[in-house]
Write a structure and sequence with these properties.
With 107 residues, this protein is mostly helical. The chain has one domain. The chain is 63% helix and 6% strand. The chain contains 5 helices and 2 strands, in the order ββααααα. It has a two-stranded antiparallel sheet with strand order 1-2. It is globular, with a radius of gyration of 16 Å.
């Protein structure tokens, strides 16, 4: 989208270059998250695990909810958004969420 921009003599990237870099990082994080949860494929994740994984990815990267929904094969962006919000509110209350969150964060 935007070419390289020179800012005070230093090259800086904007637009697509930044998004692409974040997507690469998010894909790595997604693979690591699957491994930490003991899953091999996204299709093995339960709905609540996808919401938890989405919440975790959004906290660790700057990719959008639309990208996360597509990568997790969630279905609807709004459904994932509300599910991730619910996960954020219920962390600390629900045992399965706490257990999954601990696995994702290596604790």
């Amino acid at each position: 989208m935007f070419p390289s921009i020179v800012w005070f003599g230093w090259p800086s990237w904007a637009g697509e270059a930044v998004e692409e870099k974040e997507e690469v990082l998010a894909r790595r994080e997604l693979a690591e998250g699957l491994w930490r949860l003991g899953k091999r494929k996204i299709g093995e994740l339960a709905r609540w695990e996808k919401q938890l994984m989405g919440h975790w990815l959004r906290r660790r990267t700057s990719v959008g909810v639309k990208w996360v929904a597509r990568e997790l094969k969630y279905g609807s962006v709004s459904g994932l958004r509300s599910g991730m919000s619910r996960v954020g509110r219920r962390l600390g209350e629900e045992r399965r969420l706490n257990k999954g969150w601990g696995k994702l964060n290596g604790t």
